[in-house]
Write a structure and sequence with these properties.
Layout (H helix, E strand, L loop, with lengths): L1 H19 L17 E10 L2 E9 L13 E9 L14 E6 L4 E2 L2 E6 L6 E10 L12 E5 L2
Antiparallel strand pairs: 1-2, 2-6, 3-4, 3-7, 5-6, 7-8
């Protein structure tokens, strides 16, 4: 009886070891990453029905000395009533307001305009730059804009 189980168990063990042992063996390493683009010192203002966001881009220059490449940005937005503002330092839940495809970086500055913000209230904004392949970078600081007209 023991011999009947010996051969299938041996074959199963050889196949299992062959599957587990396949693949390239090398020491582990982290792939090289270029620093992600980030908007710093984000500021904003509301004028004549348009929100203007601007800030600096970090890193300002790539390793090759050229201006950083960004394929656009994602603008996050949250709105609160004037009579019910959130406390300072409270977490704010943002939603995606708009994805802008190009033309947000000029030199080492970030600029964009948002025309769809018309309602009164306290508006919060954050932006994330999109890398050359469309991957979002880290979030910027948050900006608070009061619209009471």
């Amino acid at each position: 009886m023991k011999r009947e189980w010996g051969l299938p168990l041996f074959v199963f063990g050889v196949i299992f070891l062959a599957l587990v042992a396949c693949g390239k063996k090398a020491p582990p390493f982290l792939p090289e990453r270029k620093p992600a683009l980030k908007v710093t010192h984000l500021t904003g203002e509301w004028k004549d029905g348009v929100v203007y966001l601007k800030g600096d881009v970090a890193p300002r220059r790539g390793e090759d000395g050229k201006d950083p490449d960004a394929s656009g940005c994602i603008v996050y937005h949250a709105r609160y009533d004037l009579i019910d503002p959130p406390c300072e330092g409270c977490p704010i839940e943002y939603g995606v307001l708009e994805e802008i495809k190009a033309g947000v970086i000029r030199g080492d500055t970030f600029r964009c305009q948002l025309r769809q913000i018309q309602t009164r209230g306290i508006h919060f904004f954050k932006v994330r730059l999109l890398g050359p392949k469309g991957t979002p970078g880290p979030s910027s600081n948050r900006v608070k804009i009061l619209i009471d007209d």
